[in-house]
Write a sequence for this structure.
């Protein structure tokens, strides 16, 4: 007799949140039929995790398919995506860049005087505005406005930029090797073209590039079209080859001061109708380690718990250890009392 195979619960269909390309992904898990097949998907999970760093959702043809959703679900996915505070309130102009006045003044001066370099390196800690500044700089380079600050977001070029057209700007992550190779090939072909507009390439996490890729970029920088601009973004500039740094303009993005972080969070809280204690804002800023993006993420996570945000909620979220408890832990560690150390660790 053949026993009827027990249902594993993998035959159900579930919806995933909307990805950054505005495609809703419908995952049909009926493809997963055995533990062996599940074990082979760990590599796919790693690829998906890496692709999320690149701002895109990686999909396996075996397990994911793209479907059109009805308007209600589409709207729900849009709302969920836009709720992320870092995305919703991302800077659109140089005036909105927080805590990087020297960098902004220098870039604006370059635009006004028309002294645009072929290569730039934006380096500094995570969440300090490097990528946002690069995008604004890219929009400003092709802005047609003759009055006021650039970008204006009113002219034709700014409109195309807002539509995320790749006509003027292309942004890739160094994790995605295939995209990097395509960019390098595209740059090589541009050397023979005459362009009236700037073509900007933003290379995120450039410290992950291989030596071969750096060599290719070096050749491009030496022979590049004057209207091609490459912006390298990294948190580890020491791993950028000296040959590259010598032919690029370098800008350090410092950690954001707590006062600037708090000011920014106050504005977001007011816009989101959040009632946040000043002590809570101080704790968020202190635990963000100078990263405005991390601070905004913490505020968003706390806002999911309710409109009222207190210092106790922040303590629960970030597990803040008081000075007294910290001293107690140090004393126990120095006492070499293994039993007490184990007991205290279990408590935490």
């Amino acid at each position: 007799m053949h026993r009827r195979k027990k249902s594993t619960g993998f035959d159900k269909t579930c919806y995933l949140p909307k990805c950054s390309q505005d495609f809703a992904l419908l995952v049909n898990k009926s493809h997963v039929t055995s533990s062996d097949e599940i074990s082979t998907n760990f590599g796919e999970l790693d690829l998906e995790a890496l692709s999320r760093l690149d701002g895109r959702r990686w999909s396996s043809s075996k397990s994911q398919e793209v479907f059109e959703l009805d308007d209600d679900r589409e709207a729900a996915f849009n709302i969920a995506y836009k709720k992320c505070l870092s995305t919703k309130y991302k800077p659109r102009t140089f005036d909105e860049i927080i805590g990087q006045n020297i960098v902004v003044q220098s870039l604006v001066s370059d635009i006004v005087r028309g002294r645009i370099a072929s290569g730039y390196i934006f380096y500094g800690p995570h969440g300090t505005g490097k990528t946002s500044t690069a995008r604004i700089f890219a929009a400003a380079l092709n802005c047609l406005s003759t009055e006021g600050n650039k970008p204006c977001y009113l002219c034709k070029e700014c409109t195309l930029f807002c539509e995320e057209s790749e006509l003027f700007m292309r942004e890739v992550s160094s994790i995605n090797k295939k995209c990097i190779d395509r960019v390098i090939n595209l740059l090589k072909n541009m050397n023979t073209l005459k362009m009236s507009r700037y073509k900007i390439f933003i290379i995120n996490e450039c410290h992950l590039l291989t030596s071969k890729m750096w060599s290719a970029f070096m050749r491009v920088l030496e022979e590049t079209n004057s209207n091609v601009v490459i912006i390298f973004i990294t948190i580890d500039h020491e791993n950028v080859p000296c040959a590259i740094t010598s032919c690029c303009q370098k800008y350090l993005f410092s950690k954001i001061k707590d006062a600037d972080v708090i000011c920014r969070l106050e504005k977001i809280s007011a816009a989101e109708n959040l009632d946040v204690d000043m002590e809570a804002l101080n704790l968020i800023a202190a635990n963000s380690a100078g990263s405005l993006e991390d601070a905004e993420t913490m505020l968003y996570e706390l806002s999911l718990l309710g409109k009222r945000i207190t210092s106790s909620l922040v303590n629960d979220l970030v597990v803040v250890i008081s000075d007294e408890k910290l001293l107690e832990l140090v004393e126990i560690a120095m006492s070499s009392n293994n039993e007490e150390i184990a007991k205290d660790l279990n408590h935490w």
